[in-house]
């Protein structure tokens, strides 16, 4: 059970229990002010099947008032006044400029949304948290901020055009609090994501944007007997139930990948994987390797899904080692991208969770116990060897975006990922630049996501 929790926590990029992780092949060390929060309206149900193609709208609520001193922007229901002075920099924050200067026409692949905790790391002293939009050249734009007593701890998803993000924190009662953050205005809208009963665990990210526009949301929920995923508006009106099944356990809980064209959803369910319409209409079952539990990771190309699969039963070394497969979306048999390593596999080796194809190579994301993570290069025999990364130092390194020969990497220190930074490296592991450094005694970067690309 402990290792199942650790896998989930790595996927959430949050802390795990103490210990030291060693992979089957050892990894290379990876050398304010308060914005107003509004709440979504009472849910209504409107049956609808649609293609997600309309341009996304902003999430600012007309009746709310947001004042952000650090970005010199005040928004009211009737007017908006914006100045263009750089954001003031404290001794624990990286330099940044106002969101009013974001060149939205340039925003796309190679940009990142980054959550930065200004709190003192040791000994802990709570400070404000900030959300930055970061350009490929390292220019940082402060998009939103939280007071010390409301600090979030993760990013669930980012709208493909970078105009909004879903951020998660604690609501003060040990339950998660989800907010839809508008990066254009800094406004924060509370999302009423249902809290599952005690002991009911679902996907690590129970709410995400639809694709390709991010206009709507996909939400997982469970009452302990059944579980389902629904398509909803950002105002929380239900558009369709996408999939439903009896709830059994975390291993078999529903997970999904939104379809390439916006009309379908790939769903991993207790019996395998399937393609359904975004209105819940069944389309086809997908082939999965026998004896494995698989979940979709990303689109490898227009008709191929990168899936992360775990073998179950005595034929496999342990239930938590992940192998990557390429699965056609027409239901025909897939093929492994990575192979099982020869010899015994340590129980703290979780295998490969993600991959990117770039510059003729395939880069693999390896994960282990206690926050261990590293980048490997796929070999012809389906195994991986660690990428020698220079210029940065950390206990874990995770790819968060790959574009134009550059890799955006979230690098952290410690088993609990207590201190972090965002760094850019080349595909050969060479250091390129600091995108968001850790400044002073702050915790620094605690979450980051690259803007969506259709294929890796």
For the residues shown, what is the average pLDDT? 84
Distance between the termini: 32 Å
Biggest β-sheet strands, sense, barrel: 5 strands, mixed
Strand content: 35-45%
Derived from helix and strand composition plus strand pairing, the structural class reads mainly beta
What is the overall silhouette? globular
Topology-level CATH name of the domain at 34-348 = Neuraminidase
Q: Residue share in helices? A: under 10%
CATH architecture identity of the domain at 34-348 = 6 Propeller
What is the level 1 CATH name of the domain at 34-348?
Mainly Beta
Q: Would you give an account of this structure?
A:
- By secondary structure, this protein is mainly beta.
- The chain is 2% helix and 44% strand.
- It contains 1 helix and 33 strands.
- It has one helix at 2-12; strands spanning 37-39, 66-68, 73-75, 80-82, 97-98, 112-120, 129-134, 140-146, 152-158, 164-170, 176-182, 188-191, 207-209, 217-222, 226-232, 238-246, 255-258, 264-269, 272-277, 282-286, 292-301, 304-311, 322-328, 335-336, 349-358, 361-368, 373-378, 384-386, 396-403, 406-413, 419-426, 431-436, 442-450.
- It has a 5-stranded mixed beta sheet with strand order 1-12-11-10-9, with no helix packed on it. The protein has a 5-stranded mixed beta sheet with strand order 5-8-7-6-33, with no helix packed on it.
- Strand 26 (361-368) and strand 27 form a beta hairpin.
Mind sketching the topology for me?
Blueprint: H1 2-12, E1 37-39, E2 66-68, E3 73-75, E4 80-82, E5 97-98, E6 112-120, E7 129-134, E8 140-146, E9 152-158, E10 164-170, E11 176-182, E12 188-191, E13 207-209, E14 217-222, E15 226-232, E16 238-246, E17 255-258, E18 264-269, E19 272-277, E20 282-286, E21 292-301, E22 304-311, E23 322-328, E24 335-336, E25 349-358, E26 361-368, E27 373-378, E28 384-386, E29 396-403, E30 406-413, E31 419-426, E32 431-436, E33 442-450
Parallel strand pairs: 1-12, 5-8
Antiparallel strand pairs: 2-3, 3-4, 6-7, 6-33, 7-8, 9-10, 10-11, 11-12, 13-14, 14-15, 15-16, 17-18, 18-19, 19-20, 21-22, 22-23, 23-24, 25-26, 26-27, 27-28, 29-30, 30-31, 31-32
